[in-house]
Amino acid sequence: MTNPPTGRLVPTATGSDLVLSRTFKAGIEDVWASVTEPGRTARWFGTWTGDAAPGRTIKVQMAFEEETPWMEARVEVCDPPHRLAVSTVDEAGAWHLELLLTSTDGRTELQLVQHLKTTEGLGEVGPGWEYYLDNLVAAREETPLPDFNDYYPSMKGYFEALTD
């Protein structure tokens, strides 16, 4: 299962936003639970521990990466069930991410936004987010999880072309 890439690059005053989305036939509270409850995030991204509140730092395990590393994530905004913003720092740099949820007629749209100061590495980052969002879809539908090899390197060119 590999769908066409959904990522798009939106210019901002401080750089660019990489925006990817998925729509679910589910209520907003249920989709919110899929992206915030540790038992449910474990199914598609990784579990987490800590006191999740704005201004606090949690530990997140990246269960679908080699060696399943843990990382720290600072919760910047938590406005259930509409907006979650977190920031992380790792060897690749600082990551500023938002999950934005909207609901209409029993459907919920989830947008993942990565705020970028530079588009360097977009060819690697974009396919990764497509993979994780399709992991979320598969986890919610209880279908087999996708294979990252179906995303990278085949989607690399698409994301690199967004910077042209």
From TrEMBL:
Transmembrane segments: none
Any Pfam family matching the protein: AHSA1
Domain named Activator of Hsp90 ATPase homologue 1/2-like C-terminal: residues: 26-139
Gene3D superfamilies: 3.30.530.20
Database matches in CDD domains: SRPBCC_CalC_Aha1-like_6
UniProt record similarity statement: Belongs to the AHA1 family.
Name this polypeptide is given: Activator of Hsp90 ATPase homologue 1/2-like C-terminal domain-containing protein
Originating species: Actinoplanes friuliensis DSM 7358
Species lineage: Bacteria, Bacillati, Actinomycetota, Actinomycetes, Micromonosporales
